[in-house]
Amino acid sequence: MKEEVEGIILKETPYSETSKVLQILTKKYGLVSAIAKGASSIKSNLRSLTIPFLYAKFELIYKEGKLSILTGGNIIKLYGEGKSDLKLYAYMSYLCDLSYNVLKENNDKEIFDILKSSLDKLSEKLDYEVIKNIVEFKYLNYLGIEPNFNICHKCHMVKDFYAIDGKIGGFVCHDCFKNERLITPNLLKKMKRFQEVNISEITEIKLTDEEKKLISEFLREYYETFSAVYLNSIKFLDMFKS
Questions:
Q1: How far apart are CA 26 and CA 73, in angstroms?
Q2: CB-CB neighbours of 202 under 10 Å
Q3: 3 state DSSP class of 181
Q4: Same domain, 209 and 125
């Protein structure tokens, strides 16, 4: 049955000589795989509807658990400025790649709102790295590996926290501290806030460069240690952090 579905294209891959298979994050169904027949052809009416980061209302012949068929649609917005801003494009590539991998583990429709809000904030030129980190924090819940920020991850007691380590999963108290990264009480509050904040309501971001660096390093270690997510797009993103 043909229907109109709001969604964002996460990725597209060639299929045969003229067609494409799209991975679309939809507001109604979560992740949907759809074939766009003949979309690689210059004359195809579907060509403009198969671009990564495109936000549109797609006309689909939806087939649950199978390959749906794209028949048309109306463009709402193209995120990423068509690669004119490579840094922005790199961050959007990473977030779409991350979202796709999370959806393979948990096809929760709430992820649509998280990704759309994050792409909106990146387009508004809010701090790219912080928006990325907030999304990474939120997705840990959908992967079933949300960190416990209420205990020391060495002695498992509730104490005042002194340091943080992504490889052990969280905070370390003063008694257990060895050579982990030191953390201030203020940054502790900010990290907990990352898990709860509504991205669409963010209007400004106030973190020091050192705070952003610590959070980014913690999240990278945490994902590498506790998740099965591996993203090639991280290499592209790293080019803009040197």
A1: 13
A2: 18
A3: strand
A4: yes
Based on the domain organization, do 62 and 101 belong to the same domain?
Answer: no
Separation of alpha carbons 22 and 14, rounded Å? 9
Q: Tens of pLDDT along 113-157? A: 999 999 999 999 999 999 999 999 999 999 999 998 889 999 999
My answer on whether 215 and 131 are in the same domain is yes
CB atoms within 10 A of CB 61: 14
Asked whether residue 89 falls in the same domain as residue 133, the answer is yes
With CA atoms as reference, report the closest residue to 231 among 108, 131, 101. Answer: 101
**Torsion angle defined by CA atoms of residues 189, 191, 193 and 199, in that order, rounded to the nearest 10 degrees:** 150
Which phi and psi angles does 212 have, rounded to 5°?
A: -65, -40
Q: Enumerate residues 6+ apart whose C-beta is below 8 A from 124.
A: none
- Sign of torsion over alpha carbons 46, 50, 56, 62: positive
- Contact between residue 135 and residue 62 where contact means Cβ atoms under 8 Å apart: no
pTM above the 0.85 mark? yes
Residue 78 dihedral angles phi and psi, to the nearest 5°: -110, 110
Q: Which DSSP category does 180 fall into?
A: P
Interatomic CA distance for residues 29 and 49, integer angstroms? 19
Whether 39 and 129 share a structural domain: no
Distance between CA atoms of residues 70 and 49, nearest Å: 9
Judge whether 75 and 48 are in contact, CB under 8 Å: yes
- CATH number (domain holding residue 19): 2.40.50.140
